[in-house]
C-alpha cells in the first residue's frame, strides 16, 4: 500500500511542476520536449537517496519515467501516467519477489 501511495505521490509532484511549465512553454515548438526532459531530471533527483546517491542508476530511473510522462499527454490524464507507473514497477519488482 505504501508503494502505491508513493507512486501516486511522485506523479502528482511531477505533474504539479511539469504541467504548469508546459503550459508556459507550449508556444515554443520544443515546449513538450523541454518539459519531459525536466520531468526525467526531477524524477531522477527524487530517487537519488533511495539508490544511495548512485548517479547512473538515477539517470536510468529518470529515463524510465519519460514514457510515463508521454502517457500523460497521450491520454490527456494524469491517471494514465499513474497506471503506467504502477505497471512498470510491478514488472520491475515482480522478479525480485519471485526469486
Written overview of the protein:
It is built from 5 helices and no strands. It has 99 residues and is mostly helical. It has one domain. Helix 2 packs across helix 3.
Quickly list its features.
0% strand, mainly alpha, 99 residues
How would you sum up this structure in a few lines?
The protein is an all-alpha fold. The chain has helices at 2-25, 31-46, 55-64, 66-75, 78-98. The protein contains five helices and no strands.
Task: Please give the structural blueprint.
Blueprint: H1 2-25, H2 31-46, H3 55-64, H4 66-75, H5 78-98
Helix pairs in contact: 1-2, 1-5, 2-3, 4-5
Residues in helices, as a percent range: over 70%
Count of DSSP strands: 0
- The average pLDDT score comes to 85
The span between the termini is: 21 Å
Structural class: mainly alpha
How much strand content do the residues show?
A: under 5%
Write down the domain tally: 1
Q: Choose one word for the global shape.
A: globular
Multimerization status: single chain
**Which residue ranges are poorly predicted, with pLDDT under 50 across at least 5 consecutive positions?**
none
Using the CA coordinates, give the radius of gyration. Answer: 14 Å
Largest sheet: none
Helix run count? 5
* H-E order: HHHHH
Amino acid at each position: 500500500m505504501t508503494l502505491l501511495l508513493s507512486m501516486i505521490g511522485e506523479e502528482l509532484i511531477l505533474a504539479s511542476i511539469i504541467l504548469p511549465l508546459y503550459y508556459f512553454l507550449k508556444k515554443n515548438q520544443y515546449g513538450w520536449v523541454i518539459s519531459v526532459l525536466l520531468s526525467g531530471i526531477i524524477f531522477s533527483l527524487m530517487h537519488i537517496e533511495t539508490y544511495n546517491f548512485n548517479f547512473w542508476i538515477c539517470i536510468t530511473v529518470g529515463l524510465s519515467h519519460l514514457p510515463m510522462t508521454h502517457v500523460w499527454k497521450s491520454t490527456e490524464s494524469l491517471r494514465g501516467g499513474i497506471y503506467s507507473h504502477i505497471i512498470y514497477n510491478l514488472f520491475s519488482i515482480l522478479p525480485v519477489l519471485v526469486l
